Amino acid sequence: MLSPQEIDELASFALELADAAAAVTLPHFREGIAVDHKDGKHAFDPVTAADRDGEAAIRKLIGERYPSHGIHGEEHGRETGTSGLTWVLDPIDGTRSFICGVPLWGTLIALNDGTRPVIGVMDQPYTRERFIGRPGGSELIGPQGTAPLKTSTCTALAEAKLGNTDAGMFTDSKEKAAFRDLSSQVRLRRFGGDCYFYCLLAAGTIDLVVESALEAYDIQALIPIIENAGGIVTDWKGGDPQAGGQVIAAATPELHKAALEILKPAAT
Questions:
Q1: What angle do CA 111, 112, 115 make, to 5 degrees?
Q2: What are the pLDDT digits (tens) for 191-210?
């Protein structure tokens, strides 16, 4: 277990990593960067030089400062460390938003202690907003200063604001039906938010995020941000979400339970 002093040191370092990534990614935003397609399970899975070079900048700093730490990144794979600590990285979560000029993408940086992510950062350099979660609390560092994050008190689906990146991520018929059922019962739905919606849940302006087909680097940085703001993040069975897959994040235990009752039959 990391000591409070180690948490402080590593959380500060995570912000340095966010600075390094922003220096690479931000100059490309809304500048017509070339887009490649990554072969894989998606019909169109975009990647840019900003993704690749942003992660490379983070990895370079980790290697220089903490060479014993492991790294798991979307663009450059895994490096096994010897310390038991692993940085889990997504240099641009929301590449589709990035290439469309929509400022809802972000750099995700998590530190996993070998059991679960304990520090999480989501940095949106264009809006100059930085969400960070760690033991003891979550906060937003932005143009208006620094403020603590706290999830909403919403307990009922009928009052909930639901966020999702793209309903097209639900490809299984049971998933589609479960999400359709859930989304028909909430007060309001918004789409296209990527990592930003999870952070708005931590900030108390969105109450529920439901997604599927996530990777570990899509969710690990967001778990400490939400949990240390008072929220809950699990898979659709109510279990550990850090490997990705089907994920639900909720502002309160009551809201989480109500949504989970609908999603569980479609859990894999």
A1: 160
A2: 999 999 999 999 999 999 99
